């Protein structure tokens, strides 16, 4: 199987700097069942072509398949995998051209954002869906698609055409964009992968698909096929994409204004800042050292936590890739000393699914998170956090619906933010927290946050859950 990338950008041999591969040498990288060879069939100032040739060992492919119960099935010995562009090609792109795929160019970084004319040729590509699918996948990204379909057997034309195509894709884009499109869409065309996929495959998809997948008209098909039609993973990926689509584009200040319309006129600390401080103080008071900010958003709470030496490890988790990118920038993670960088980690995930990465923490905070979920899905979050992750202390904040009458321009029955699915009164929040604590063996106390009114309570409300520990037969 062969991929060639040709450019007529001037000077065309800039391609070798972007790919981090010297045009005067043939290079190799090891794959799980073979090798990938990188070489340049032509190099000049006017035109440059880089080639990625895969040499898959059919016997090695079977031996590396692992104990799947069908190691002696005929299909494992008679198949097209060593001869077509499939997920093996995506893996080879990621390994051979990792710097270019991840947007790095050591010698000429100014080239990274330069759109160049490219022609990418794939020989051959299995397409389950025919030429119409090829066009539906690549044309919305600006490609001109030229596809030559191959017959099943030229000697027997009556057998018809195969699903195999030689494909040429022409576009003027950056090399990183080209490689990310190929990385994702090659296995989508094939509708198969050579390896077992798990939840981390969602992160790969969203990472390589950022800035184009969420607006692609065929994104549902792309996500489903990329994840091998596994319903659970597909639903989780769609949830992430939908949440990203619904994210507010406004600044933090505007978002805060929407969440708390017409706050009292006197200049006072913003309610969101008070929530973050309250959560930090509770985690400090509990003596927590390993803490998780669940639904970390753009990293404001994490920034407060990083300033406290007590916290030895800080995890931030959010469903939105865009928010995590902002958090990474806000926390300046790439500029931190290595020791400090190891103290902080950002991950993408959903709180409605069990995630073993959340286990083993002393403390966790969910600051203004629960109200963004449909009430019917709260049970999944409860199990994920309180049953499976089970931190020793959990801090939860949420708006107090009773206080909404204090907002002059908030009509009766309206919620503070367009993305809120519910807002609870103090009695509702306390009933939920008490039931939760009883079910999962926690003690819970409730505290007000922000300005308070004798009749309607405080602007926001907080529950602090502390796990019960048995000592000599007694709960303490």
UniProtKB/TrEMBL annotation:
Cofactor(s) needed by this chain: Mg(2+)
Keyword Nucleotide-binding carried by entry: no
GO biological process: regulatory ncRNA-mediated gene silencing; RNA methylation
Top-rank lineage group of the source organism: Bacteria
Keyword hit for Methyltransferase: yes
UniProt-annotated stretches for the region Disordered: 245-267
Reactions the enzyme catalyzes: small RNA 3'-end nucleotide + S-adenosyl-L-methionine = small RNA 3'-end 2'-O-methylnucleotide + S-adenosyl-L-homocysteine + H(+)
Pfam families: Hen1_L (PF12623), Methyltransf_23 (PF13489)
UniProt-listed CDD domains: AdoMet_MTases (cd02440)
Protein's UniProt name: Small RNA 2'-O-methyltransferase
Alphabetized GO MF terms: metal ion binding; RNA binding; small RNA 2'-O-methyltransferase activity
InterPro entries the record matches: 3'-RNA_MeTfrase_Hen1_bac, Hen1, Hen1_N, Hen1_N_sf, SAM-dependent_MTases_sf
Similarity comment: Belongs to the methyltransferase superfamily. HEN1 family.
Keywords: Magnesium, Metal-binding, Methyltransferase, RNA-binding, RNA-mediated gene silencing, S-adenosyl-L-methionine, Transferase
Biased composition, class Acidic residues, residue ranges: 245-261
Domain Hen1 N-terminal: 1-241
Enzyme nomenclature, EC number: 2.1.1.386
Family annotation (SUPFAM superfamilies): S-adenosyl-L-methionine-dependent methyltransferases (SSF53335)
């Amino acid at each position: 199987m062969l991929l060639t990338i040709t450019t007529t950008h001037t000077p065309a041999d800039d391609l070798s700097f972007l790919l981090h591969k010297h045009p005067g040498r043939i290079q190799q990288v090891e794959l799980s069942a073979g090798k990938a060879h990188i070489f340049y069939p032509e190099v000049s100032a006017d035109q440059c072509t880089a080639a990625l040739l895969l040499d898959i060992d059919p016997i090695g492919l079977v031996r590396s398949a692992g104990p799947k119960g069908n190691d002696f099935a005929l299909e494992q010995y008679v198949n097209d995998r060593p001869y077509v562009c499939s997920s093996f090609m995506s893996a080879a792109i990621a390994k051979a051209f990792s710097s270019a795929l991840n947007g790095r160019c050591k010698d000429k970084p100014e080239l990274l954002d330069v759109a160049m004319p490219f022609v990418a040729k794939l020989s051959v590509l299995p397409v389950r869906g025919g030429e119409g699918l090829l066009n539906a996948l690549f044309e919305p990204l600006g490609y001109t698609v030229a596809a030559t379909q191959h017959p099943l057997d030229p000697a027997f034309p009556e057998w018809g055409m195969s699903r195999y195509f030689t494909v040429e894709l022409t576009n003027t884009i950056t090399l990183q964009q080209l490689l990310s499109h190929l990385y994702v869409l090659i296995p989508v065309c094939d509708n198969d992968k050579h390896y077992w996929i798990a939840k981390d495959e969602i992160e790969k998809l969203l990472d390589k698909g950022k800035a184009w997948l969420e607006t692609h008209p065929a994104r549902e098909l792309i996500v489903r096929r990329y994840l091998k039609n596994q319903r659970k993973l597909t639903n989780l990926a769609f949830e992430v994409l939908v949440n990203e689509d619904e994210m507010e584009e406004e600044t933090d200040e505007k978002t805060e204004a929407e969440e708390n319309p017409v706050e009292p006129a006197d200049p006072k600390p913003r309610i969101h800042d008070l929530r973050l401080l309250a959560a930090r103080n509770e985690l400090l008071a509990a003596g927590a050292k390993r803490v998780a900010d669940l639904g970390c958003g753009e990293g404001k709470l994490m920034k407060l936590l990083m300033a406290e030496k007590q916290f030895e490890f800080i995890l931030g988790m959010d469903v939105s890739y865009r928010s995590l990118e902002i958090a990474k920038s806000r926390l300046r993670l790439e500029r931190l000393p290595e020791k400090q960088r190891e103290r902080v980690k950002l991950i993408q995930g959903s709180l409605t699914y069990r995630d073993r990465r959340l286990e083993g923490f002393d403390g966790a905070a969910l600051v203004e998170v629960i109200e963004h979920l449909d009430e019917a899905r709260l049970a999944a979050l409860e199990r994920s956090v309180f049953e499976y992750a089970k931190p020793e202390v959990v801090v939860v904040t949420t708006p107090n619906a009773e206080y909404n009458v204090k907002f002059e321009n908030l009509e009766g029955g309206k919620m503070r933010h367009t993305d809120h699915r519910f807002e609870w009164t103090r009695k509702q929040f306390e009933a939920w927290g008490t039931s939760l604590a009883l079910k999962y063996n926690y003690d819970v106390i409730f505290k007000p946050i922000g300005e308070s009114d004798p009749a309607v309570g405080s602007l926001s409300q907080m529950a602090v859950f502390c796990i019960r520990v048995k000592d000599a037969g007694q709960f303490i």
